Amino acid sequence: MTEPDLSHAVWRKSSHSGSGEGECVEVARADRLVAVRDSKNPNGPMLTVTPTEWHTLLTSIKHGDFG
Predict the structure, then answer these.
(1) Domain named DUF397: which ranges (predicted)?
(2) Residue 65 and residue 43: Cα distance in Å, rounded?
(3) pLDDT, tens digit, for every residue of 1-28?
(4) In 3D, which of 16, 62, 59, 10 has the Cα closest to residue 35?
(5) Least packed by Cβ within 10 Å: which of 36, 37, 46, 59?
């Protein structure tokens, strides 16, 4: 699988990311994927998922499925 082109991605920080607490997540749409990265390490590894997988993850989090 080839890497998605993120050169024009617009990254958004989660509204739940704390200011100065070190737990910041950024999300961007790219090449029919959703990319997620740690805002403290923007050149580090990122997770890419389909929009359907992203929606499923967010729904699970909102329902408290992860504790």
Answers:
(1) 9-62
(2) 30
(3) 677 788 888 999 877 766 666 678 899 9
(4) 10
(5) 59
